[in-house]
Amino acid sequence: MIFLIGGETHTGKTKLAQLLLERYHFPYLSLDHLKMGLYRGKPDCPFSPEDSDGAIAAHLWPIVKGMIETCRENNQNQIFEGCYLPPEQVKSLLGQDVAAVYLIFSETYLRTHYDLVLQHESVIEQRLHAGAPTMEEMIADNTALYKRCIAAGVPVVEIREDHDAAMAQAIALLGRHMISLRSYRPADLPAVCRLFYETVHTVCANDYAQRELDAWAPEKVDLAAWNRALRESLCVIATVGDEIVGFANLAGDYLDRIYVHAAWQRRGVGSAMVGALERAARKRGIVSIYTDASITARPFFRALGYRVVTPQKVVRGGVVLTNFRMEKYL
């Protein structure tokens, strides 16, 4: 997951990044550090720290965007915070693996708490004082950025009265994009069965013929049998907000099912579910787990330390399918 924290000076971007680091253990990068690294490290740096935020952002944004794209490609978590995140550009990157929030001071807050804002400018990092903007300058800058954020349609947390409450709101807003695991509930069954069907017919379509996919995942399944199997085994549900994005179940020492929504592939959902089931198995004294992995899933299980015991031919709905018996010692 990639978090982008924007906002004008003194709004608490670094504090929010620190709180997120402590909660999720994601590394974070201050764009002020990137700015000063380029300025001090490149004799031909095209900007000066005294330039406007907009001018500096014009030079930094292509670099930051490239870093975000690299994190995406490598499925890496990262927090970026700073004044140099143009909301118009950030908007195009938002998705299931990139979330943003902008911290904005309201005019009322600044007129009431301006002195307090200046007192807390180094609450996380001790910085050399380069001259704080006046209250009127802060009001103008925050108002302008607020309008840009609204026009671009990016998330904003406006600091109106309680700064700590605003931090909590921002954390909750970003937390909606985080994956959570919980136990299976019978009410999950329709969503789970739908996810099963859609995942097989999309994710596995390159490895199996259509008749094989239809036999493996028919449109209608025995709901009572599925519910019984999931309830009687150890089943975890992966959610993002209220959306179910994956499920997996362990029956004794057999990893029976594991499916992740097509839109959430390669995002750590599957490994999080398997990891949770493996930890539970160890607590129960289970020394090894085996599974029957599809052609599609075999590389995933290999990456988690499972080895192929033997290729298999199994019959589903009168159709012969290829899969692999795989095993891992815990």
Protein traits:
seven-stranded mixed β-sheet; alpha/beta; 12 strands; 12 helices; elongated; 330 residues
Overview of the structural elements:
The radius of gyration is 25 Å and the shape is elongated. With 330 residues, it is α/β, with parallel strands linked by helices. α5 packs across α6. The strands form two sheets. Strands 6-7-8-9-10-12-11 form a seven-stranded mixed sheet, with helices on both faces. Strands 2-3-1-4-5 form a five-stranded parallel sheet, with helices on both faces. A hairpin with a 2-residue loop joins β7 and β8. The chain has twelve helices and twelve strands. The model has no long low-confidence stretch (mean pLDDT 93). It is 44% helix and 25% strand.
The N- and C-terminal alpha carbons lie at a distance of: 28 Å
Order of SSEs, N→C? EHEHHEHEHHEHEHHHEEEHEHEE
- Using the alpha-carbon principal axes, give the shape: elongated
Low-confidence stretches: none
Q: Estimate the mean pLDDT confidence.
A: 93
- Widest sheet: strand ordering: 6-7-8-9-10-12-11
* Number of strand segments: 12
Structural class: alpha/beta
Give the biggest beta sheet. 7 strands, mixed
Per DSSP, what share of the residues sits in E-state strands of 2 or more residues? 15-25%
Percent helix range: 40-55%
- Rounded radius of gyration (Å): 25 Å
